[in-house]
Amino acid sequence: MNVRLMWPVLSCLMVTVLFLGSCTPVEQSTPTPTPTPIGIKDAIDRGLIAAHFRGTGSSSGDSIEATFDVEVDMDVEIVVPRGTVLIPRGTAQSMVLMALRGIITGPATFRPVLSITLRPGTRTSKTYLFEAYCLDFHRDNPASSTSFSLGGSASETVQAILTCGHEADVGAIQAAIWAVTDNVSKTELQSRFPVTSSELESAREMLECAGVEVNTLRLF
């Protein structure tokens, strides 16, 4: 047999086998669908999650912790709108939520996050920290033992203050809110919640941004 004549044939067969082997289909993994964001009230009303709110002992800033449990066998992404009001169980202040700060990782630590996604596989409660502000100047600060229930939405004016003050200092935001909810004077405010002159000026700017006639307020 002429080996030189057979070599091209053998080479062709080898290429064909290699080609067929490379065409073996690869099993594709099914991507996990992204959950559709749902408002926290709807999620609770539909039985998708359980939510428990409590204070941290402060009236302003990082003052609310929320623990969530998923109640269904699916991922749930929760949206907590700015301006959501929390009603205290007791005589403490009502609170208005401004922003999600992060997921709590320890007694005094948290990891910043931009959203809340609950996964049923873990079956573990997750606790998140929220920036929130007091709506009742003359009531006591919520203690760490104070629990809250989910209320409705804050007034349009308070919501406008939160929007205008999204980059302002905590003291300025709280002063602006109390100026419209309780019409506090400067003396009253300083006796309970000392603020600087720059924070007062920032509060004035927020109120003007929110469409409030500041000349009618006792704070200025």
List the topology elements.
Blueprint: H1 3-22, E1 38-39, H2 40-45, E2 49-55, E3 60-70, E4 76-79, E5 84-88, E6 95-106, E7 109-111, E8 116-118, E9 126-134, E10 147-153, H3 156-164, H4 170-181, H5 186-192, H6 197-209
Parallel strand pairs: 1-4
Antiparallel strand pairs: 2-3, 2-10, 3-9, 4-8, 5-6, 5-10, 6-7, 6-9
* Strand adjacency order, main sheet: 2-3-9-6-5-10
- Main beta sheet strand tally, sense and closure: 6 strands, antiparallel, barrel
Strand content: 25-35%
Separation, N- and C-terminal Cα atoms: 109 Å
Number of helices: 6
Beta-strand segment tally = 10
Number of domains: 2
Percent of residues in helical segments?
Answer: 25-40%
Output the helix-strand order: HEHEEEEEEEEEHHHH
Q: From the structure provided, what is the oligomeric state, counting identical versus distinct chains?
A: single chain
Structural overview:
- The chain is of the alpha+beta class.
- It folds into two domains: 35-154, no CATH class; 155-220.
- It has six helices and ten strands; from the N terminus they run H-E-H-E-E-E-E-E-E-E-E-E-H-H-H-H.
- It has helices at 3-22, 40-45, 156-164, 170-181, 186-192, 197-209; strands at 38-39, 49-55, 60-70, 76-79, 84-88, 95-106, 109-111, 116-118, 126-134, 147-153.
- The chain has a six-stranded antiparallel barrel. A three-stranded mixed β-sheet has the order 1-4-8.
- A hairpin with a 4-residue loop joins strand 2 and strand 3.
- Helix 3 (156-164) packs antiparallel against helix 4 and helix 4 packs across helix 6 (197-209).
- The longest helix has 20 residues, at 3-22.
- It starts with a helix and ends in an 11-residue tail after the last helix.
